[in-house]
Amino acid sequence: MHAIQQQYWAVRDYLSPVLKESKFKEHGRITPEEFVAAGDFLAYKFPVWTWEHGDASKARDYLPTEKQYLVTRGVPCLRRATSLAYTDADEDAERLLNFGDASGGAADEWVETHAGRKATVDSAANPGEIDDIPDLDADGEQELASAMGNVSISLTTGATVNETPDLDDIPDMEEEGLEEGEDEATAAPKAITSGGVIDASQIEVAKGNLLQVRTYDVMITYDKYYQTPRIWLIGYDENRTPLTPSQIFQDVSADHALKTVTIEAFPHSATLQAASVHPCKHASVMKKKWGFGRKSSKDDKSAGPGAGGEDEEIEGMRVDFYLVVFLKFIASIVPTIEVDSTTAF
After folding, report:
1. Which of 88, 84, 138, 92 has the alpha carbon at shortest distance from 111?
2. How many CB atoms lie under 10 A from the CB of residue 214?
3. Which residue out of 97, 178, 270, 280 is catalytically annotated?
4. Better-scored residue on pLDDT, 156 or 95
C-alpha cells in the first residue's frame, strides 16, 4: 500500500505545474527561483549548508543542475524527544528552598521546579550523593605522629649512605624482559580494513556516563506540488551505523511521529530512503510567519518619525529569509536535532 502511495505521489509531482509567479505574501508558497535565492542566502550566511547536484537521472529541470538541494552533515542529536515531554504533574511540582541562616533573616529563597522528577544516571549535571569525609581528630593526629616517628630506613643491599652504587649493578630492561611483556590494561588493536578504516563492528558502544551522540544528515529539497521546501533526515549512531525508522522516530515530537513525519524515497536518489516532514502545512505556517514580520515592520514604521505615510508599502520579511525562518519552524518538530544553525541570526 505504501509503495502504491509513493507511486501516486511521484505521478502527482510530475504532473504538477511549476509555479511561475511568487505567492509568498499571499499563500506562503515560493517559486523555484525564490527557493534557489533563499538557498544561496542560507549557504552564504551559514556555510554548514551546501548545494548538491544529486543523481543526474533524478535532476529537476526547473532547478539549476548544481543546485538541486541543500545539505548539512553531522548535525548532533544529544537526547531523545521523550526527555522533553513534561506532564501537568511535573509543571505543578514546585518546592521552596532556603539557603543560608534562616534565623538571622539573611536566607536566600529559591523555587525548585519539577521536584518530583526522578534523577537520571550520574553525570556532570547529576553527580549523585557524595559521602562526607571525616575530619582527623586529636587522637588520630597523635597516632599518626607516633607511627611516623617509629619509621626507620634500612638498606637491604648493605651499602652505606655515602657509598655510590655501581651502575653495572642496575639491571637493564632487556635482562628483566620488561619490553616484551604485555600490559593487561592495554587495549587490543582494532581490525583495520584495506582502506585504512576501522571496522565499525570492532568499536565498542559507550557505556556508563559516556554520552552517546546521534548525528543526522539534513537535506532541504523543493516540493513542486506544494511549492514549498521539504526537509529530509538520515540518522546515524555514534558508530556511524544508520538508524532504523523506529530509532529516528525517537527523535521526533510525539505529535508528528508517523503522522507528518514518515519514511519515504529521497527524490534526488534512486536508492536512498529518508525520514521526511510532510509539507502539506508548510505554506500556511510560513504565511503566518510572514504576517508576523509584516505586522512588526508596520508597527516600527508607525511609531518612528515621519509616521503617517499610508501609501508606503510594508515589505516585512524578505523572501531570501525564507529558509532561515523555515528551519526555526522545523526545529519545533524535531526539537532534539539541532537543525537550526541560524540561532545567531
Report:
1. 92
2. 21
3. 280
4. 95
The most confident of 20-24, 71-75, 155-159, by mean pLDDT: 71-75
Q: pLDDT tens, 245-285?
A: 999 988 888 877 777 888 989 999 988 999 999 888 888 88
Active site residue 77: no
pTM over 0.70: no
78-99 burial, b if ≥16 CB within 10 A, otherwise e?
A: ebebeeeeeeeeeeeeeeeeee
| DSSP conformation class of 251 | T
- State the DSSP code for 219: E
Pairwise CA distance, residues 18 & 34, whole Å: 12
Q: How many CA atoms lie within 13 A of 207 on its CB side?
A: 2
DSSP 306-332: T---TTS----S-GGGHHHHHHHHHTT
Instruction: Detail the DSSP E strand segments found in 10-99.
Output: 50-52, 69-77, 94-99
Q: How far is it between the farthest Cα atoms of the chain? A: 107
Alpha carbon 92 to chain centroid distance? Answer: 29
